[in-house]
Amino acid sequence: MSDTPVRGAPFRVALTFDAEHPDRPWCPPGNAERILDDLRSRGVRATFFVQGRWAQAQPATAKRIADDGHLVGHHSHYHTRMPLLSDDGIASDIRDAQEAIIAATGVDPHPWFRCPFGAGHDDPRVLKALRTQGYRDVNWHVELDDWEPWRTGAAIADDAVEGARTQGDGTVVLLHTWPGGTGDALGPLVDRLAEMGATFVTVDALAELP
Ligand SMILES: [Zn+2]
Predict the structure, then answer these.
(1) What tens digit of pLDDT does each residue of 117-172 get?
(2) Rounded to an integer, what distance in angstroms lies between the CA atom of residue 75 and that of residue 59?
(3) How many A from CA of 114 to the centre of ligand 1?
(4) Separation of 47 CA from ligand 1 center, angstroms?
């Protein structure tokens, strides 16, 4: 952890998106594509943790994530809290999603995995099941409650900038592809972090991950 980034010092920020079925009824259509457009126009690569069932439902968007050069990770199949599943349940959820992600994106998500809701990231049984199938869990430093309907783009961008400033080099930021607030926030938050000297990396570029 470091203090306020100094211009010239490394200040790497990994924007990570959970690409999944919306948790809420108000998700604006085309939000994921809008996010991909904003990343593309700014030349920013990010990491997308893709839910298997979502990839089956939205194969074109899932494929675009890979085609645009983003890093593809695994975000389970059913988006269940992994600790609630049996050992067999965890194993088959991982396998089903892996198959669906590869079918949709053409990319093998190994070894990057993110537990739905972060549940299981500190559970030895879940982590062992992940390891057995060649995965490691990637948690985050900065979360923005971007799934809450009342969170505006301005508030999400402000908190992302402040969170990355506080965490410093190597910050991993949790975002989601479906909230409208995230779609509104993304362009400004990328521009403001870039102005502060941030470089945007994918999680495979960071030696230390949360
Ligand atoms: Zn999720």
Answers:
(1) 999 999 999 999 999 999 999 999 999 999 999 999 999 999 999 999 999 999 99
(2) 15
(3) 8
(4) 13
Cα 100 to ligand 1 centroid, rounded to whole Å = 16
User: What percentage of the chain carries pLDDT values higher than 90?
Assistant: 92
Cα of 9 from ligand 1 centre, angstroms? 32
- State the distance from the centre of ligand 1 to the C-alpha of 197, rounded, in angstroms: 29
| Strands (E) located in 88-135 | 112-113
Using CA atoms, how far apart are residues 60 and 105, in angstroms rounded to an integer? 8
Q: How far is the CA of 194 from the centre of ligand 1 (A)?
A: 26
3-state secondary structure of 141: coil
The CA 187 to ligand 1 mean position distance, Å, reads 22
- Statement: residue 5 has pLDDT above 80: no
How far, in Å, from the CA of 138 to the mean position of ligand 1?
A: 12
Tell me how far apart the alpha carbons of residues 72 and 142 are, in angstroms, rounded to a whole number: 20
Neighbours of 92 (CB within 10 A): 13
Q: Say what the pLDDT of residue 7 is.
A: 63
Give the number of residues written for the chain: 210
Q: 3-state DSSP: the chain helix, strand, coil percent, rounded to 5?
A: 45, 15, 40
Predicted TM-score (pTM) of the model is 0.95
Residue corresponding to tokens 């949709």: 104
